[in-house]
Amino acid sequence: MSNSVPAGLNPPQREAVLYLGGPCLVLAGAGSGKTRVITQKIAYLLQDCGYQGRNIVALTFTNKAAREMDERVKTLVERKLSKGLTISTFHALGVRLLREEARHAGLKPQFSILDADDAMGIVQELLATTDKGRLRAVQQTISLWKNALLDPDGAEKAAVTPSEFEAARVYRSYAATLAAYQAVDFDDLILVPARLLETNEEVRTRWQNRVRYLLVDEYQDTNVCQYRLVQLLTGDRAMFTAVGDDDQAIYAWRGATIENLARLPKDYPSLKLIKLEQNYRSVQRILAAANQVIERNPKLFEKKLWSDLAHGEPIVVTPMDSEEAEAEATAMKISASRFERQAQWKDYAILYRSNHQSRILEQALRNLKIPYTIAGGQSFFDKAEIRDVLAYLRLIANDEDDPAFIRAATTPKRGIGQATLQTLGQYAADRQLSLFAAVFEHGLETRLQARQLEQLRVFAEFIQRIQWRAGRGKAGEKPTSAEPAGVILDDLLAAIQYERHLYDTMEEKPAQSRWQNVLELTSWLKRKSEEDGLTLFELVQHVALVTMLERGEEETPDAVKMTTLHASKGLEYPHVYMVGVEEGLLPHMGKDEEEGDPAKAAESLASRIEEERRLMYVGITRAQRTLNLSWCKKRRRAREDLVREPSRFIEEMGLGDARFPEDEATRAMSPKERLDMLKALLKKN
Ligand code: ATP
Ligand code: MG
User: Fold this and answer.
1) Distance 282 CA to ligand 1 centre (A)
2) pLDDT score at 34
3) Atom 18 (ligand 1) nearest CA
4) Does residue 28 have a known ligand-binding role?
């Protein structure tokens, strides 16, 4: 036996790492070393138990978490031992499984992954409405059904209200449409593999033989479908370790269910349950505040959490006059604190409830020339120019992807108009073909004028030539040697004259910044294709995953981290600034509070507050050494100033007097004055 394992583990952690007698659940509060157990266990399996990398799969919640875990494992074991190891999100594993087993799932290996906008577009078409609220509601309902493993038949049976019946009807057509496009949506990336493993014994056996040990982080946020996938991958041997914290379950709105925690001991009577109670992350004060908040929630599992770190500095709560003032003060305080503590930018994080809060903070940070990165925003991949370029790539990879066809065929404008596309669409529907395939049909010639047809064919042939260069081969043939993705990308952009299109259709400044984004995308794609040896086809699917929760920021530069509370899960920062800690924002109150049955509404409100409280708990427990909260007395909403109250969660932290700790001398100064003072001091030295 080796001596590598026990280092840096307390007795229950060690027990969890060494336990290989069957399924194992580590249930523990924030910062107690659950993720550490996973990385150490991977090292143990590789180094001491003779497991091969390719037989171990570890699942995490975000790409970033997966990357961090991967790096940790690489520092623990020799590179050659970790070869073939899978550390990924559920979705990335789903893509891999689907790509390898595409045939069995009725897909081709280059199936498309639709983003939320495309999916929304399809739902919109099917519902024939532009009412955003209704569209979102239907899409959300379908998504929840998928996450609960229901197919259209199941959904129809489960539907009760008229709007659910409508959603079930849309679900059926939506599923058929996706199938016709050879496309899947995000939810399918889990659902389809789970189905496949369930129904196809050959596939199931293959994967169960491959996955000899499975580890799952953040288990509390899995949904029914993900749990099913875990069960199917591990089979009767049930060799897995799951770690989680019911107090950090924050994805119920996406179909995650804490039931999965409760079910585990029932489904696996031999389950080994291990609790961790020592927190290694936060100073006493922060931990105490976190514990006080979460105590108000009903308990699923009893847990104690203690820390033997120092008492720590007081937690600071600052009321602000407005969002602008809050953003400005936060930037100033960070700047001053970094200077005072001789810290680095990356020691700081700003946490907020909603993506839209980031813009004003960004502005304030930029004003002070503070470097920052944003996680959890979808901004980059949602940008029109990025989606334009990706539409081409998707179409090249999968010419049955009709949404990609329409976007690419019309951007930049090349004389293919709405009328032409409608005729084409009708023809394709009659003949049960993709738009792309329909372009080459003789039958189309009678329906379109020669000039319209010509334009379509020029476009489709252009795409075809790139497909060949990308190694697509003739239909049905295996891909042959491909040109490097980078070369193809450059040629593609030049051929469609995308840069010129930008300058033709908008002012110089926005055109310039959009072109910069495109260049950023292509250089990132090139790097990825070189580093990971991905073909253009694989790249396209890879990109779709990155869009899901975060943008693919690779290394950690020295920059302040801005992140939503949701995206901060599992991470830790020395100094945390939580902004907008006020009623209405945290707890968040959606406009569309459940109407109708008041009892149901009250229940949903109560459980919603509980989930928001867990989110607060997650936020507080990200902080290692200092924690600063702020809230705005007024906040601007649709050109109206709303009067705001501090979040109930602040009261619940039980800070007492500790919340007015700034000493008189510095409090009298504005943050700006204080910063200037500090800078002056620096110059003197
Ligand atoms: P979260 O619930 O937020 O995901 P977690 O339970 O996964 O937290 P980790 O991130 O694994 O906790 O650990 C928190 C911090 O404590 C990390 O910096 C980790 O390195 C450290 N840590 C964990 N276990 C020990 C230990 N036995 N000795 C020293 N430090 C530890
Ligand atoms: Mg963790």
Assistant:
1) 10
2) 96
3) 281
4) yes
The more confidently predicted of residues 20 and 549 is 20
443 is in an annotated binding site: no
Instruction: Kindly give the number of the ligand 1 atom that is closest to the alpha carbon of 248.
Output: 2
Residue 117: how many CB atoms within 10 A of its CB?
Answer: 12
Q: Which of 15, 17, 32 to mutate to test the pocket of ligand 1 (most atoms within 8 A of CB)?
A: 32
Fill in the DSSP letter of residue 567: G
Domain match, 47 and 194 both: yes
pLDDT at position 598: 62
pLDDT band, very low/low/confident/very high, at 377 (cuts 50, 70, 90): low
Predicted TM-score (pTM) of the model is: 0.81
Domain that holds residue 90: 11-101+190-278
Q: Whose Cα sits closest to atom 27 in ligand 1?
A: 9
By alpha-carbon position, which residue is closest to atom 23 of ligand 1?
A: 33
Are 162 and 202 contained in the same domain?
no
372 & 388 share domain:
no
Task: Sort strands 372-375 and 623-632 into parallel, antiparallel or unpaired.
Answer: unpaired
Higher-confidence residue: 556 or 586? 586
Q: Are 137 and 163 in contact (CB under 8 A)?
A: yes
How far is CA 158 from its chain centroid? 28
Considering the domain architecture, whether residues 564 and 629 belong to the same structural domain is answered as yes
Structurally, the chain folds into a number of domains equal to 4
User: How many CB atoms neighbour CB 681 within 10 A?
Assistant: 11
Q: What is the pLDDT of residue 596?
A: 54
The Cα angle at residue 246 between residues 241 and 250, in degrees rounded to 5: 110
236 and 353 housed in the same domain: no
Best mutation site among 60, 280, 616 for ligand 1, i.e. most ligand atoms within 8 A of its Cβ? Answer: 280
Whether residue 524 sits in one domain with residue 394? yes
Measured distance CA(24)–CA(514) in Å, rounded: 49
Looking at the fold, whether 77 and 207 belong to one and the same domain comes out as yes
Last residue of a domain, one of 132, 153, 181: 181
What separation in Å is there between the alpha carbon of 38 and the centre of ligand 1? 11
34 is in an annotated binding site: yes
- Residue 29 counted as an annotated binding residue: yes
Catalytic residues: 34-35, 217-218, 248, 622
DSSP assignment string, 312-357: -PPPEEEEESSHHHHHHHHHHHHHHHHHHHT--GGGEEEEESSGGG
Of the residues 549, 584, 604, the one at which a domain ends: 549
Quote the crossing angle between the two packed helices 485-496 and 498-505, to the nearest 10°.
Answer: 40
Q: Is 363's pLDDT higher than 50?
A: yes
In this structure, the residue with its CA closest to atom 2 of ligand 1 is 30
Tell me what pLDDT residue 642 has: 87
Domain membership of residue 603 (yes or no) is yes
